[in-house]
Specification:
About 55% of the residues are buried. Strand 10 and strand 11 form a beta hairpin. The longest helix is centred in the middle third of the chain and has 26 residues. It is globular, with a radius of gyration of 24 Å. The protein has a 7-stranded mixed sheet with strand order 20-17-21-16-15-22-23, sandwiched between helices. The chain is built from 20 helices and 23 strands. With about 600 residues, the protein is of the alpha/beta class. It binds fe (ii) ion (FE2). Fe (ii) ion binds next to helix 6, strand 7 and helix 14.
Amino acid sequence: MIVLGIFAFGMNPGACILRDGELIAFGEEERFTRLKGSHGMFPGRATVSCLQQVGIDLGEVDRIAFAWDAKKYPYRMLASITRQFLKYRGSAARSNGGSTSNGRKTGNANVLTVLLNLLKYSPRRLLEETRLALRTTGYRGELPPIEFVPHHLCHAYSAYFSSPFDDALVLTLDGSGEDTCTQIARGEGDDLRVLSETLIPHSLGWYYAAFTAYMGFLPYRHEGKLMALAGLGHERGADNPWPERLQTILATDDGAYEVDPTFTRFGAHSYAERFTDKLADFITGFDSRLRPLGSRNRADQARLLDPAYVDLAWGVQRRLEEAVGDIVSGALSGLTTRNLCIAGGVGLNCKMNGSLLGKSGIERVFAFPASNDAGSSIGAAMVVARQGGDRIKRELTSTHLGPEFSDGEIREVLRFSKVSFSEPANIAEATAKRLAQGQAVGWFQGRMELGPRALGARSILADPRNPDASERLNREVKSRETWRPFCPSILPGREDELITGADDASFMTIALPVREDRRAVMEQCSHTDGTTRPHVVCEEANPRYHSLLRHFEEETGTPFVINTSLNVSGEPIVCTPAEALRSFYSCGLDALAIGSFLVEK
Ligand SMILES: [Fe+2]
């Protein structure tokens, strides 16, 4: 059976194709529209790309699986949300009193606005809009049947059925999927059973987004910046009072938790949509210097590195880790499994994922590499394929499931652009040599990776022995904050020499401690808190990248390179050869290894 999975009209739309239960193509809409996140859009370009990769048209698809259950809306969802919102409306009004402490005029995110927003997801409307949007692919025949699948079930399926485990606790955490924010499930063999759910407004995604916005970052996009900032507060962590203070906002009790929404969504908002004035009053009540920061205000950006803000970030991160640790402990009681699968937007928090290893007896953690909503399309397709009798339990060994371009196509783009290029006898060896000479090299090879991390198909690479490598990459190539760390791609079998607990850490989704005696060697691709987010390269999945690492090791004795995504600041990872060239010429890269060709400045 051929199933097209889609996630549309929300954050990070995406599409995929499963054939007889096997994931064979994936695309995230932003890579094609070139608009970061492509929020609210239909994944029409991603769908066309998937169909082209597989060589079929829409008429050959048996079923379409949509990773959002519109059928929940008219009944269960409206009832549960109305209950929750009414409960908190009163406390929001009391806490704000209609104005802020300094008398500013306030906006108000009220219940009615939120309910009206929800109506756009009525089943009939979603179905009609999906059918119309599918027509943008150019297909004019009869459309395959479309099925709605509960969002968190999709996240859970994607993680468990791609994991190396036959038995696992499956935790999904995000902003919200329909009315669910957190779900706990149990995967056993070919079966997955939902054990419990936490509903809106107790969203860990909303919790983290509130502080992301408070620091002047873009919520639902720059959470990783807050996570990286938190790492800078590691040394002062023992004396940090924020985790305890933040229990007021994120409370836990015996495996259950609550996020008080009067700090996030319900109440007066003078600064940003994602947090209320009550949060600003709460934080500045402890430290008056800690006012909310503005993203476009340069002075505010500079203030981020004040120890006071760094400590707040560390506290926010630590409180998240404590709460999720409690959730996992509670869920594990009475279960024998020691494996954990994670997906959902909060599952992109690699520090949180790493913090769960060893906690409550968890011995192995698999965090799905496309934990964002684009990846929920994979789970949706899995649910529908399984209903149709396909076997879907297959360990994900390769993330290279996106579009690729032949040497012929690449040569044509290079010639059209009138770019000088060479064709070395061995592009992997030529690239390794240039890296060893200190060059920063763009690496464009084969099928694009699934998920938000570059994993050796659309990457920027550098020599980790160079003491200026990360500073130079941040300043000259990526134009990003100096405190954001880089990650290593490592030869398989060598990760244990460098990192503790790297068994399931192949896809840069888990931050793990660098071995004490390897800290200096890995300084350029680890964070100041002593962790790194490894990518262990699979030879079968990416033979050319594996070969590059081998040549680099022969040249330097070092079995890893610095790997970051091939894009310029604010843009999605490049998809096509032309986009690779554009990025190459608009940043400080020295060379571009594109297919079998080398472009040098
Ligand atoms: Fe989600």
